[in-house]
Amino acid sequence: MGPVTDTSEAPEVKFRDTFSTISPAWNLSGFDPAGFEAVNFDGKNRLRMTFNSTGSSTNRPAPFKDGLYKNQGRQRTVGLSGRWTLSAEVFVSSAFNTTTGPLARSELRSQTGPTPEDGSDMLLGFTNASPTDEFNPAAADRAFRFRVSDGTTGNWINLKLPAGFKFEAWHTLVSTSTGTTVDFSIDGTVVHTSPIVAGGDLRGAMIQGCNFDQTDGYAVYWDDVTASTVIPQHRRTWGQDYKVLPVFVWVRLGKTGIGRG
Question: Residue 169 — pLDDT band, cuts 50, 70, 90?
Answer without folding.
Answer: very high
